[in-house]
């Protein structure tokens, strides 16, 4: 039997989701030995700032992609959404690098801000980021395995709309988390 990615989009989505989330949880849980990762202090310190810029760029590319598909500019939409995914992948690699070496950042501000602002924003950001992973993979795999005319017969539009919405909110909340950790406090 021939393996065709087009016929296995849900399976591939599941596999990619499990692998991606396993890497994230392994990094956050510091399961990966520190001596297995080359350490660059300057890069470790730069990662939060790079990721804030990447997040802002991703907000722009997702918004542009959304606008272009509404204007039926499929080629521009595709480029914008692929760029968004590349930005997300770069963000994730940098985040995993830093958190594997340093662990999660501690909040330096007042306890009340920590409890009533930072933690709720962080929790929603993390929840949306986790929920987005399979949605983004599914929408991208559908787009990668189907022609634009075939996509109209799939859940790409519906799933893509939800994925893009949640992705935008997650990236935006990530910028808020960055501002609370590195700008305000």
Automatic annotation (TrEMBL):
Database matches in InterPro entries: DUF420 (IPR007352)
Keywords: Membrane, Transmembrane, Transmembrane helix
Regions crossing the membrane: 50-67, 79-97, 117-141, 162-184
Protein name: DUF420 domain-containing protein
């Amino acid at each position: 039997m021939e393996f065709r990615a087009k016929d296995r989009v849900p399976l591939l989505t599941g596999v990619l989701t499990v692998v991606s989330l396993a890497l994230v949880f392994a990094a956050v849980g510091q399961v990966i030995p520190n001596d297995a990762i080359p350490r660059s202090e300057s890069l470790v310190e730069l990662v939060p700032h790079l990721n804030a810029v990447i997040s802002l760029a991703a907000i722009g590319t997702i918004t542009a992609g959304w606008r272009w598909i509404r204007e039926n500019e499929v080629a521009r939409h595709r480029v914008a959404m692929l760029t968004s995914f590349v930005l997300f992948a770069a963000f994730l690699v940098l985040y995993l690098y830093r958190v594997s070496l340093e662990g999660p950042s501690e909040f330096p501000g007042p306890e009340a801000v920590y409890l009533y602002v930072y933690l709720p924003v962080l929790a929603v950001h993390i929840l949306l980021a986790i929920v987005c992973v399979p949605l983004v993979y599914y929408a991208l795999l559908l787009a990668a395995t189907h022609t634009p005319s075939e996509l109209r017969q799939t859940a790409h539009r519906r799933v893509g709309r939800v994925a893009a919405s949640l992705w935008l909110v997650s990236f935006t909340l990530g910028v808020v988390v960055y501002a609370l950790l590195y700008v305000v406090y």
